[in-house]
Design goal:
single chain, alpha+beta, Glutaredoxin, Glutathione S-transferase Yfyf (Class Pi), Chain A, domain 2, 2 domains, 9 helices, globular, binds glutathione
């Protein structure tokens, strides 16, 4: 089982969390997103993943992109540790929280979007940061509101779900860019709780072999 990713990629980070939660052993293959124009754009990688994005999962004859598709595949193949509630309304709820991160916050702050803002539209570095803060603040505010009623120890009650798996990497990213999280106490508390767990610690960007390369 191989996971092509990058230590700071929050989409790869989601998959790593799931692999560790499910105690799967896997080989991490680093795709450097910045060095030399980005290895994600080289033919050696785009042959595997035509979207020019990480992560990519490879196991025997299965090659998958899109972190949430990979996660659902792993969840169905290795169901012993559940990441969704069994009740279908609750399952839809945690999925919606996960998508609030994966569809509403993450894509507009992706590296290639930021590169386009700066390199093509000549947006100044400070304005680029304002862009990221703007979309993160809007997205986190919506999640914070929902966590007021849904959260226990984690985003939805006291069990880790796909909502936490998507939220933790996004908050890691927010902290990296020094976003003021003080307006989001429920998010911060849930993320702190997740970060006590061995699977989340093992998946941390700084604990990856390609960290800081
Ligand atoms: N929706 C995709 C997003 C993947 C994605 O955006 N990956 C980022 C890193 S988190 C990437 O590879 N960026 C490279 C680039 O923007 O050039 C998923 O969930 O897998």
């Amino acid at each position: 089982m191989k996971l092509y990713g990058y230590w700071r990629s929050s989409a790869a980070y989601r998959v790593r969390i799931v692999m560790h939660l499910k105690s799967l052993s896997f080989e991490s293959i680093a795709v450097h997103l910045v060095k030399d124009g980005g290895e994600q754009h080289k033919e050696a990688y785009t042959g595997l993943n035509p979207t020019h994005l990480v992560p990519t999962y490879v196991d025997d004859d299965v090659t998958l992109n899109q972190s949430l598709a990979i996660i659902d595949y792993l969840d169905e193949k290795y169901p012993a540790v559940a990441i969704y509630p069994t009740n279908i309304a609750e399952k839809a709820k945690v999925k919606a929280l996960a998508l609030d991160v994966a569809c509403e916050i993450h894509p507009v702050n992706n590296l290639r979007v930021q590169q386009y803002l700066v390199n093509t539209l000549s947006v100044a570095e400070l304005d680029k940061l304002a862009w990221s803060y703007h979309w993160m603040n809007i997205g986190f505010a919506a999640i914070e509101k929902q966590l007021k009623s849904s959260a226990g120890k984690f985003c939805f009650g006291d069990k880790v779900t796909i909502a936490d798996i998507c939220l933790v990497p996004q908050v890691y990213n927010a902290n990296r860019f020094k976003l003021d999280m003080s307006a989001f106490p429920h998010i911060s508390r849930v993320v702190d709780n997740c970060n006590q767990l061995p699977a989340f610690i093992a998946a941390l960007p700084e604990n990856q072999t390609d960290a800081k390369l």
